[in-house]
Amino acid sequence: MTNDGLKILLVDDDKIMLFLHDTFLKRSGVLCDTVLCYNGQEALDYLDSNQAMETTFLVLLDINMPVMNGWEFLGAIRDRPYLSKVLIVMVSSATEESEKSRAMTFRQVIDYQQKPLTVETCRRIIGSEKLRGFFDNVILG
Asked: Which InterPro entries does the protein's record reference (predicted)?
């Protein structure tokens, strides 16, 4: 499987974080399309309207956002028919171990990272076992 089968959703209400994370993903060698969403509802709406695509969605999800926060997104996506095509990395400024533990109880959450992401963090994410195959043609420097 190549990265043609993967689309990345960056979900954060902070425009600077979205810009940084998008930039760091590209600098780490990620060539897939990224979609910017400013809250969980925008991400859910995007997934709802694109669920027919033969695509796996990697969602980098902030926790604290207006309209629909990360926890509400995780609850809402649980019943969606496309759930198996969604992999989630929680990206939060929260440092409490309880937040990470709570996030990892959701089946679709494959990782939990501190904000802001870095090029190195992005490389760790794309090199994770759960994403094996999607980034095979990406050369990590």
From this structure: CheY-like_superfamily (IPR011006), Sig_transdc_resp-reg_receiver (IPR001789), TCS_response_regulator (IPR052893)
135 inside domain? no
| 109-131 pLDDT tens trace | 999 999 999 999 998 888 888 88
67-104 pLDDT, tens digit each? 999 999 999 999 999 999 999 999 998 878 898 999 99
How far apart, in whole angstroms, are the C-alpha atoms of residue 129 and residue 127? 7
Structural domains of the chain, count:
1
Q: How far is CA 61 from each of CA 3, 13, 64, 114, 138, rounded to the nearest angstrom?
A: 20, 10, 9, 11, 23
Range of 76's domain? Answer: 3-31+45-130
Q: Which residues pair with 56 in a beta bridge?
A: 6
